[in-house]
Amino acid sequence: MFRYILVLLLLLLVSSYDVYSHEESGPWSCETGSEIHVESEFQPGVITLDGHADDWKDIDGSHFSLLLALDPDAENEFNGGKMTVKSVHDGRDIFFLLQVDGDYAYSNGESKKCPSVALMFQIGDGASYHNMGGCEEHSTSCTNKTCKGHEVDIMHFSIGNAIPGRLYGGNPTDNRDGNGGDRFGHLVDLYAWNPHCRYLDGTGPSGSVNDSSAQNDWKGAWWHSSFTVHSGFVKDENPYAEKWKKRAHIFLNSLGL
């Protein structure tokens, strides 16, 4: 069986309040350790991107504590539950399941008051997990020249308007415009050099030449374990609530290899 190890940079963003630019009070470092290795096995024809975790029951996963971005001390970890990450591939696409237990505030349609999740991958040789690539340039001076080597690739899925069980991400409308956006469900394809310099694929800082051939290469769906019906909802059915019981948010995503 063909296997390979993916060294992933995983970032979970769960909030019920406004999110501001990343600012730190002092020095901080992050050393890469074995705990961030996720194994992706060859399992063709197993996974369906519908948000349900049933297909993944026989696939081993890794479990991660959720730490605050600005104070990543173990004593301040999220105590509602851990994040489970699983991955398989079929030779064409690679699939990820991210499952998070715990209580979450949720406001339908408000992207800053709902669960969000992101996967971040090192692209540039000098890119770091900490500081989202680690380029020291300001937002007014970061370019593909001044931040060369600090590139990271990011998938970000915010479920503010996304209907459970429906497929989001790359679509003909946004891909036709040559960028990594998703106007329907906010599952977007980004790149960054640092937290202040993040852009949709195909776009860039002022004065840069945009890549008209860029597109969103990700697809994904989400679900919640409190839902008892395994078919996709429509907006009028409104399964949302201000706060769910302690169950699990489930995110399924895929990327073409």
TrEMBL record:
CDD domains on file: DOMON_like
Segments passing through the bilayer: none
InterPro entries: Cyt-c552/DMSO_Rdtase_haem-bd
Alphabetized UniProt keyword annotations: Electron transport, Heme, Iron, Metal-binding, Signal, Transport
Signal peptide: 1-21
Coiled coil regions, renumbered to chain: none
Pfam family, one: EB_dh
Molecular function as annotated in GO: heme binding; metal ion binding
Source taxon at top rank: Eukaryota
Residues of the Cytochrome c-552/DMSO reductase-like haem-binding domain: 54-233
PANTHER family xrefs: HEME BINDING PROTEIN
Protein name: Cytochrome c-552/DMSO reductase-like haem-binding domain-containing protein
